[in-house]
What we know:
The chain is mainly alpha-helical. It has 27 helices and four strands. The protein has helices at residues 2-6, 10-26, 80-91, 96-116, 119-132, 134-147, 151-162, 175-197, 201-219, 228-247, 251-263, 278-299, 304-317, 320-328, 336-347, 351-364, 373-385, 389-403, 406-418, 422-440, 444-453, 456-463, 469-479, 484-497, 504-524, 527-540, 545-553, and strands at 32-37, 41-47, 51-60, 63-68. A four-stranded antiparallel beta sheet has the order 1-2-3-4. Strand 3 and strand 4 (63-68) form a beta hairpin. Helix 17 runs antiparallel to helix 18 and helix 22 runs antiparallel to helix 23. It is flat and about 90 Å long.
Amino acid sequence: MARNVVGFGEDDLRALAGARSFERGLGYLDAVNGLEVGESSVTAVVHGTDVYEVELNFGGDEGISGWCDCPYGQESNFCKHCVAVGLTVLQRARVIPSQRAEARARASGLEAWLSALSRDELLALVREQIAEDRELRRRLELRAAAARSDFGAVRGRIIALIDPRPFARYGYVGYADAAGYGRQVDEAAAALRALTADGQAAQVVGLAEEALRVLGEAYGEIDDSDGVVGQAAAAVAEAHLEACRVARPDPKRLAEWLAGSVLDDSTDVTDLDPLDYADVLGQSGLARMRQLATEAFRRGPSGWAAWYLMERLLKAEGDADALVALHAQDLDPSGATHLLIAEELESAGRSDEALAWAERGLRDCAAETHIDGRLVDHVCARYAKAGRADDVVAVRRDRFRVERSLAAYRQLRSAARAADCWEAERAAALATLEEDARRAHGGPLLIDALLDDGDLDAAWPTAAGRADDRQWEQLADLSRQTRPAEALGVYLRLVDRSKEPTGDRAYEHLARLLLGARECHRALGTEEAFTAHLAGLRAELKRRRKLMSILDRHGL
């Protein structure tokens, strides 16, 4: 019934929080105070290490979500305090509808009261609020200055909103204060857009540039783990672009500002893309930026910013040869740069040259264990499209010989099957893995390959003395219908090894092993032996109440 009223249940809370936080939340039920019910949300405070504010939203199609200002909750986790509030809501589910009705009545009453106030009474109320709320006061001051077109006052208010110092309690803006600072920066961005709409775009261009400079200087001292300040700064950058499109500032001056912003390695608060301004810059602005980028690239060709700016400008000009020459100066040993060049040439309609660069990448990186898989896929896709199936197999074979991974084995298998030569390729690949196993006195990859092929007849003798527990379990899972006695032996051995570890994950794994063992006993007609073994295990581990509940849930 609780689920019907509030739209969620204990299982939803457990799934969101995880078993650990859910169990901890049970211990905070008596610490929940001040529960306030809204139409589809509740707020409360929970007394823990500190007093934390919690908000839960529920009742919609998206299920339940929660927010808490504790450190764990601010990392976007559904914390133990959210669990405690959720469980409190479930306990009070019968009175939730009446509390919702009361909340609607309060909201209606507030609206009616405000509507009945005189102008002087409303002004007195607003003055009272702005005297107590600094953030509200700043927002209203900014709106007032913008409304009377007092640009000097607007500038002062926007710079005040961008100023991080009021939030830097310890000399920097900490994680807990970043969201509040981000809201102020968002307010500044909104004001800039409003000024542009009000015919003051020319002034907004310079003001937005000043705001971005302040943000850039401050960003290194802000813990923006959630990216809220970066998003707000991006909104300021968008306001700058919007103002430029309206005001049409001098293209060369704008090019110099953009180039300076992109080439400044001291800040990464925004990712300005010069090409977004192409329509404002025009040919003269783009030419000036190309000049500045070329000079910066000559001074420090290894600098990322100069490289990025040069690449973006060459893309804008559609100069594929210049782009190839730029990238060819610094070829990555993984083959990623070869692939980039190949893609640029292919986009320019030069497919033969593109393939030649990709093939060169395979040759240059042939001895590298870790090559960019996209380059290999690119070449193989072009070969396959051209009907060169044998060449695809050759590429995949060469990569398997170097990489020696299950992924490379699978790719070789897929290519060889397409070329109708898997039997011979498999024999050679397995021989290689067998030789590796003899040299290393192991053979994990050989066993993985056999299991992936479904070759259980070969996997069982190969596993002896070589397989790890994961591989033994996989082998048993695949064999419990066809080789129940052998699979049972594996399960029982793994069950014995799994008795010591504790925790939900370990208990769930133990239950899975027991389910496999039960299936083997059923296939062998020895279910009584399994019942006796399970009874002994439960008696041995009876003090682990969580394990017992998990076994009960699985019918064990």
